[in-house]
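Z., the sequence and structure:
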Amino acid sequence: MLVALVATPRVGWAQVKLFLKDGTYQLVKNYEVRGDRVRYYSLERSEWEEIPASLVDLEATKRAREEEKGVHKKELEEAQEIAKERFERPAEAGFEVAPGIHLPQEEGVFAFDGTRVIRMIQSSAEVVTDKKRAALLLAVPGPLLKSRSFVVLAGAKAAVRIPTPQPTFYVQSAEGLGAKLELIALKPGKEARVVEKVEARQGLGKPAELRSALPLERAQVAPGLYRLKPTQALTPGEYALGELVQQKLNLELWDFGLDKLSGK
């Protein structure tokens, strides 16, 4: 059972933040006030639940919904603009990835599927905590249990879909980003994709970040330009390229998905 610590609105992720008067909130699909009770459909547990209305901050809930509507509209407009420019095939621009096919000249992360260059979209991940584990930690004295949280990306699927199981990625960055990116297989879910699990024991060392990293062939092919390629064909699913900074994963990720090829 997960409770969001930091939440970023995402287009297409149908959710409502039902704020409580203690400052926390529940992620719900819908809610209704029935006398002195508030009934809501929990996205965490996929069922209807009720709590006393005296515990719910309805004004904060309404205010947050209005703010998120504005953010969602802006994000949708931005996503539509990015979608128009996502497939690039300039005649004479940057590095030539194949005869007659060039990268754009600006910095960014791009995927080449054998016929076209696809501009990757950066997505912000969020951290959520395991509520059950947190409750156990309160009951068990001392550092006997590990605290546990997850890094997740909103939505069941990435906006970028790549039609080949072994794409080539090109990373243009003056900061050498291509030398620090890692390919991660994501764990799918109905409302979010899990990037990694973070575990720690109170007062005992640094938290451990557990993720499914996949091997990459990596080569610098030009100043500020790296070519990355999975060493093996990827299976249909959800993936992300993430930057490692001192072995810590940056929460700004380039996510993508591979759909099952027709006839296979």
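The longest strand covers residues 248-258. Residues 185 and 239 are 5 Å apart (CA to CA).

Let me know what you think.
H.
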